[in-house]
Structures are given as structure tokens and as C-alpha cells.
């Protein structure tokens, strides 16, 4: 038997988990090998401590971190008041919007006049009737409902 196998069997022997033939082979190896004998002798007290712990009943008390975390959060939220600050960007945007609205209203009021409850544009000139020497051309409508475009001519007398 090699020493590596004897050390493995020594662990099993200290726990009482060896077969009879393996135990006999280990005892024979331990008689001739001082290193494995001292290793096996050191395993006996270790295994007795482990077996005594195995027989001791363990009471399990789960420990939760959440009560401490919750208390810390409540303490922190109670001590820190929210800071409200004036938002300069919102104020600037509101001033710009109001200025733009004022400009549009002033321009609209200056170009319109209320007459007969209908707004009229003041800047458009009054249409005059066409002079007698100007010929009018009837507009021909296409199937789509839009006026037809006639080909352009370089001669101004040709319509």
C-alpha cells in the first residue's frame, strides 16, 4: 500500500467507515510506516471533536439584515429634508414663451381691424377692376379639379 492511499484510509478509519479488509491492510502499513502512523494518530482527536459536534443539536436562528436596514433608511429619510431649489431654466423658458406670445399678439392686432365682427387684413390693397384693354382668358379645369397649365410662349401676344 502506498502512503497516499494509507492517508485516505486513515481519514475513513478515524470516522469508523472502513471495511474489515481495508482496515487490516491499513494496520499492516501503519506498523511499518512511521509518517503514516503519526498522521493517523493526529486524525483520531480531530475526528472525535468533529463527531462530538455532530452529536450536538444545533438551533438555527435566521438572522435578517432588513430590520437594521429599514431603521437606517427611516433615520436617514427623517433627518434629510428635500431641498427645493429655484429652477432658472424653467423660468427662462417661461419668459421666452410669454415674450413670443406677446409679439405674436401685437403683430396680429396691428394688422387686423374688427369690422362687422369679421377680421380684415389692413395691409392688402383694394382690388381695382381690370382696364378695358386687357383680355381675360378663361381657366380650363382638368379632370383632377386643378387648373390646366398651358404651354408657355416667348411671344407675349400669344396666349
Outline of the structure:
The chain has 159 residues and is mostly helical.
General description of the model:
There is one protein chain. The protein has 159 residues and is mainly α. The protein has a domain at 3-55. 53% of the residues lie in helices and 5% in strands. It has a two-stranded antiparallel sheet. α1 packs across α2, α1 (3-14) runs parallel beside α3 and α2 crosses α3. It is elongated and about 145 Å long. The mean pLDDT is 76.
Give the amount of beta strand, in percent: 5-15%
List unreliable stretches of 5+ residues. Answer: none
The total of helices stands at: 5
Sheet with most strands: 2 strands, antiparallel
Strand order in space, largest sheet:
1-2
The N- and C-terminal alpha carbons lie at a distance of 124 Å
Radius of gyration over all CA atoms, rounded? 53 Å
Amino acid at each position: 500500500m502506498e502512503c497516499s492511499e494509507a492517508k485516505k484510509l486513515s481519514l475513513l478509519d478515524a470516522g469508523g467507515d472502513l471495511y474489515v479488509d481495508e482496515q487490516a491492510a491499513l494496520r499492516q502499513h501503519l506498523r511499518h510506516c512511521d509518517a503514516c502512523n503519526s498522521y493517523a494518530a493526529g486524525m483520531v482527536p480531530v475526528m472525535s471533536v468533529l463527531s462530538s459536534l455532530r452529536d450536538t443539536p444545533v438551533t438555527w436562528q435566521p438572522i435578517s439584515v432588513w430590520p437594521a436596514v429599514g431603521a437606517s433608511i427611516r433615520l436617514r429619510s427623517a433627518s434629510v429634508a428635500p431641498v427645493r431649489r429655484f429652477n432658472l431654466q424653467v423660468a427662462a423658458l417661461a419668459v421666452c414663451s410669454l415674450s413670443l406670445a406677446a409679439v405674436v399678439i401685437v403683430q396680429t392686432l396691428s394688422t387686423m381691424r374688427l369690422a362687422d365682427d369679421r377680421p380684415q387684413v389692413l395691409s392688402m390693397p383694394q382690388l381695382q377692376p381690370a382696364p378695358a384693354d386687357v383680355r381675360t382668358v378663361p381657366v380650363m379645369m382638368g379632370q383632377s379639379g386643378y387648373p390646366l397649365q398651358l404651354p408657355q410662349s416667348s411671344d407675349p401676344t400669344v396666349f
